[in-house]
Amino acid sequence: xxxxxxxxxxxxxxxxxxxxxxxxxxxxxxxxxxxxxxxxxxxxxxxxxxxxxxxxxxxxxxxx
Length: 64
Description:
64 residues; mainly beta; CATH 2.30.170.40; two-stranded antiparallel ribbon; 4 strands; 44% strand
């Protein structure tokens, strides 16, 4: 799904099983923490979807 993808690192939704106490497996998804931020991209401010790990690590420079 494209809505849950970081535009810098490409991190996206992962799927797996939720396992209950009685060992019943049901499908579930882990979604990255995506934020829409104003960032400086190639010298111009743009709105991009970025995961919070890229924001914290400094891969993305926010526009003020």
